[in-house]
TrEMBL record, chain A:
Transmembrane found in the keyword field: yes
Gene from which the chain derives: nqrC
GO cellular component term of the entry, any: plasma membrane
Domain annotation FMN-binding: ranges: 151-253
Protein name in UniProt: Na(+)-translocating NADH-quinone reductase subunit C
From TrEMBL, chain B:
Designated name of the protein: Na(+)-translocating NADH-quinone reductase subunit D
Compartments (UniProt record): Cell membrane; Endomembrane system
Transmembrane segments: 43-62, 74-95, 101-119, 131-152, 185-203
Organism, scientific name: Bizionia paragorgiae
Entry GO CC: endomembrane system; plasma membrane
GO terms of molecular function: oxidoreductase activity, acting on NAD(P)H, quinone or similar compound as acceptor
Catalytic activities: a ubiquinone + n Na(+)(in) + NADH + H(+) = a ubiquinol + n Na(+)(out) + NAD(+)
Function: NQR complex catalyzes the reduction of ubiquinone-1 to ubiquinol by two successive reactions, coupled with the transport of Na(+) ions from the cytoplasm to the periplasm. NqrA to NqrE are probably involved in the second step, the conversion of ubisemiquinone to ubiquinol.
Binding partners and assembly: Composed of six subunits; NqrA, NqrB, NqrC, NqrD, NqrE and NqrF.
Length: 265, 214
């Protein structure tokens, strides 16, 4: 078969054919796999939220989520309420009890709120919806808030479980593309476990957040009220990103916790 | 290797040592620096490249007579990108955990110059079977260096291998740490990968004088 592959017309035809073939192949793959992928992402969110309240199958050093076969059931047993707050004053705009969210149409549940989209809304001047999940850890009520920010290369996000005084009870962090061995270690036990027990509010109730600090001379993290955790070597910008997302996003939940305190007192 | 002729088996063995893509051709250095801070990442990246380069070489080789030479680089790029995206989507749907581990490597594969280099230098001029062997050989040669570098960086930098502590506990001061040993944080920085690759090149060339260029 002697085709003159140098001719311009052939080159253009080849390019067009290639684009059509590759384009339809990718479109077909993407659309046929989309439902499965979305289902996986939904289950992952539930696993992450459960992880933050200590429901996991961890060994000594590793991170093991509850299996995908039982995550749905566990989620509905452990999470008693799903709330949506309004960012301006922390008022509850939507409250779904266990019965309500279990019978709700699948897409209505607050845990499916896209934090990224809400952040974009807030930037555009609109108010932001803040999801919050009420669960229980070691017999006390905990509130799990999703947070999201920027690492070195790409997005980082997480779920933070807080008690009613905004003391951290558990966290889960994840990332889209941090450097393996460096920034990606935010997803390691030794980093995440350091956050447990850290305070976010000062004695007077002012919001301080947490700094991921180099050289805070507390590698075992024994001081829980210094608003600092030990940083990761070689991951300064990712660590700063963690500190920033905790400060920016959890700050919005402060009015809710203030209201909560007023109600219980 | 009884299955392969001598010429064919050279396609696999050459890139492992005397024509190694990293240490001799100095291709793929960028990803070798980026991801070798731990052994597991090195291994995963090696496997991912093995897969993409093996299949990509065959695809390009099959298309070699109909690709217009003017746009061949773009065509090669599209083939890699398509393969990588399909693999990524399939993993996301059927092996979600694995796809999370691979996330950053997916992007790095497309930019890996070994892949484009082999397409351009070998697959465009050879049949599918030989192109496949060449792809596998080069990917293995790449993986071997990655694993060596990853081994030393993780061992000396974090005191672990595959995330498992092998030198004792650095904070509790057990194992060799009790003797005053400290992890070398420098090993976790990308430049140290360059230095280790340099040392490998040195060792290799001092053992085989034929590799030394004037």
């Amino acid at each position: 078969m002697a085709v003159n592959t140098d001719k311009n017309s052939y080159t253009i035809l080849f390019a067009i054919a290639m684009v059509v073939v590759v384009g339809s192949l990718l479109a077909f793959t993407a659309s046929s796999l989309k439902p499965t992928i979305e289902e996986n992402e939904r289950m992952e969110k539930q696993q992450n939220i459960l992880y933050a309240i200590g429901v996991n199958e961890n060994g000594d050093n590793d991170i093991v989520f509850v299996g995908t076969d039982k995550v749905g059931d566990l989620f509905s047993t452990k999470i008693s309420e799903q709330l949506v707050l309004e960012s301006k004053d922390g008022n509850i705009v939507k409250q779904m009890t266990r019965q309500e969210y279990m019978t709700a149409n699948n897409n209505q549940e607050p845990y499916l709120i896209d934090v990224k989209k809400q952040q974009a809304n807030a930037k555009a001047g609109a108010s932001r919806l803040l999801p919050l999940f009420v669960g229980e850890k070691d017999g006390q009520t905990v509130y799990v808030a999703p947070i999201r920010g920027k690492g070195l290369w790409d997005a980082i996000w997480g779920y933070v479980a807080l008690d009613k005084n905004m003391v951290i009870q558990g966290v889960f962090f994840d990332h889209a593309g941090e450097t393996p061995g460096l920034g990606a270690n935010i997803k390691q036990r030794y980093f995440m476990d350091d956050f447990e027990g850290e305070h976010l509010l000062s004695d007077t109730g002012a919001f301080k957040g947490i700094t991921v600090a180099k050289g805070n001379n507390d590698p075992l993290n024994e001081r829980k009220e210094d608003f600092k955790v030990d940083a990761l070597a070689g991951a300064t910008i990712t660590g700063d990103g963690i500190a920033a997302m905790i400060k920016n996003d959890l700050k919005l939940y402060v009015p809710f916790f203030e209201n909560l305190k007023k109600q219980t007192n | 290797m009884g299955l392969l002729s001598k010429k064919d088996s050279k396609l696999i063995t050459d890139p492992l040592a005397d024509n190694n893509p990293i240490t001799i051709q100095v291709l793929g250095i960028c990803s070798a620096l980026a991801i070798t801070a731990e052994l597991k990442a090195s291994l995963v990246m090696g496997i991912a490249v093995l897969f993409v380069l093996g299949i990509g070489n065959v695809v390009i080789s099959l298309m070699r007579n109909i690709i217009p030479s003017k746009i061949r680089i773009i065509v090669q790029l599209i083939v890699v990108a398509t393969l990588v995206i399909i693999v990524d989507q399939v993993l996301k749907a059927f092996a979600y955990e694995l796809s999370k581990t691979l996330s950053v490597f997916i992007g790095l594969i497309i930019t890996n110059c070994i892949i484009m280099g082999r397409f351009e230098a070998f697959a465009l001029g050879n049949g599918p079977w030989r192109a496949f062997l060449d792809g596998i050989g080069n990917a293995l040669g790449y993986a071997v260096i990655l694993i060596i570098v990853g081994f030393f960086r993780e061992l000396l930098g974090s005191g672990t291998l595959f995330g498992i502590p092998v030198l004792g506990d650095a904070i509790e001061k057990t194992g060799v740490y009790a003797l005053g040993y400290e992890n070398n944080g420098f090993m976790l920085m990308p430049p140290m990968a360059l230095i280790i690759v340099g040392l490998i090149i040195w060792v290799q060339r001092s053992r085989n004088k034929a590799l030394i260029e004037d």
